[in-house]
Amino acid sequence: MNIREIFEQKDVVFSFEVFPPKKSSSIDVIYKTLEELKELKPDFISVTYGAGGTSAENRTLELASLIKNKYNIEPMTHLTCIGSKKEEIRKVLQALNENGIKNILALRGDIDESNIIKGDFNYANELIEFIKKFGNFNVSAACYPEGHLECESLSRDLLNLKEKVDAGATHLISQLFFDNDLFYNFLDKSESKNIRNIPIQAGIMPVVNKKQIERIISLCGASFPKKFMKIVEKYEHDKDALRDAGIAYAIEQIIDLVSNDVDGIHLYTMNNPYVAKRICSNIGSIVNSINNKKNV
């Protein structure tokens, strides 16, 4: 199913993100995770696309195909383009098509010295344009409520986002954030740039340990509200308490977002079904209540 169609059917779309196992591990190691996530009935599951060339492509494709054909859940594959030639991307698209996978999250990918000069693509909008010319894929894109870490301002980043939408993106998933007011501000500014005519899903990551927080800061620069940092400082030496507090904070975020008519929630599960189950048990009736009203 085209993921854009899911948004047409529901007021709140709820989805998960997972990542493939390491290339040294069997794909079987993720079966238990998917079995548990399946029971939560997500609307779709996205599969990340790690660095590493062909092996990364195959792992992402293998997992996406498993999600679709074994677990009967619609998959969305991440696809990065920096450092790639058009022929390489064309082969990936052919493989996706052959496996019946029609939803792609188009990303630039991380820049390093080895890939910046050898590829045919510089930005995600170029990849989106290429995919749209290739075949009948539904293409989604990423958005950044606080602006991309490499961009000089949110205003400039919104212009870049508009290029992705104009290139053919039909749905946006946000980078994680911890302050809902920043997300609402981003939605207002997106509307002023005529970007709000497509669904924008809020990306939520439950923070369950201190190392995870430090890694988030280094990778994406997300802001941490004062009340969130107080939670971390209070429970950083008690891993169970910090985990439970992080889950509670994510639940509070989600309830506020869906109560304010957000298009959807995309949960970064980190392949941890325990956290996903805890969250779904607390917000399931709320999401169902909103979606059931649409069908009355």
TrEMBL record:
Catalytic activity line of the entry: (6S)-5-methyl-5,6,7,8-tetrahydrofolate + NAD(+) = (6R)-5,10-methylene-5,6,7,8-tetrahydrofolate + NADH + H(+)
The superkingdom listed in its UniProt entry is Bacteria
Which pathway, metabolic or otherwise, does it act in? Amino-acid biosynthesis; L-methionine biosynthesis via de novo pathway; One-carbon metabolism; tetrahydrofolate interconversion
- Keyword terms, alphabetized: Amino-acid biosynthesis, FAD, Flavoprotein, Methionine biosynthesis, NAD, Oxidoreductase
Say if the entry is tagged with keyword Flavoprotein. yes
> Required cofactors, per record?
FAD
Q: Give the EC number.
A: 1.5.1.54
Pfam families referenced in this protein's UniProt entry, alphabetically: MTHFR (PF02219)
UniProt GO BP: methionine biosynthetic process; tetrahydrofolate interconversion
Q: Does the keyword NAD apply?
A: yes
User: In this entry, which stretches build a coiled coil?
Assistant: none
Q: Tell me the protein's name.
A: Methylenetetrahydrofolate reductase
Q: Which organism is it from?
A: Clostridium tarantellae
Taxonomic lineage is: Bacteria, Bacillati, Bacillota, Clostridia, Eubacteriales
